[in-house]
């Protein structure tokens, strides 16, 4: 396609520059007829992505057709005028005279066709670039999202493990403190029990010693009292019968 465009542009430029010395190549005529046939019958393998471009170019088709029709009418009128003239002209002169008019008439249509083809190619290239960029951005976004999720999960696991470690340490500390308090309380209870037992035993020993001393002193005092209270020549009194209960009650 690019080669055909280059040939068309070269032919048109040559027609404008040289005029009579440049003949219209057959390739130009064939390409022009083929382009006109393509415009009459739309291509069936057109891409759905280029529908907006087709709609936009369809508005310019009447202009292209008018230009082609004008070129044909000019050519036919010129040929009719030359044929009706009394003196026939040289074919080279006729071709040289018709070349600028044909080139001027076909140039807008060819230019429009080239612009349309370039627009389609750019549209296809842009669509391919858009799809590739979209896929790359989607893959990059997915990778970034997975990386962020992994980082967040790792940070969350680290924080959770740290909190669990702190909780276990606090529980161990509290358990150790509770055990120390319980041990201290049991020790104090045992010490109080031993102290109470010792005090009770000491009190009982003191009470027993004092009781024994009191009994000994009372016995000694009673013995001394008995010894000092007996007079000299004290005889043993005669025992008298103890009156019974009935005798005591008699008058």
Cα radius of gyration in angstroms: 70 Å
How far the N terminus sits from the C terminus, by CA atoms, comes to 177 Å
Which band does the percent of strand residues land in? under 5%
Task: Please count the helical segments.
Answer: 6
Q: Work out the number of β strands.
A: 0
Shape: rod-shaped
**Weakly predicted, low-confidence segments:** 18-24, 40-57
Average pLDDT over all residues = 72
- The SS-based structural class is mainly alpha
Main β-sheet: number of strands, strand sense, barrel status? none
Order of helices and strands: HHHHHH
Helix content: over 70%
Give a description of the structure.
- It is a single chain.
- With 251 residues, this protein is mainly α.
- The protein has a domain of 147 residues.
- It contains 6 helices and no strands.
What key phrases describe this protein's structure?
251 residues, mainly alpha, 0% strand
Helix/strand layout:
Blueprint: H1 2-18, H2 26-40, H3 51-58, H4 61-84, H5 91-229, H6 245-249
In short:
By secondary structure, the protein is mainly α.
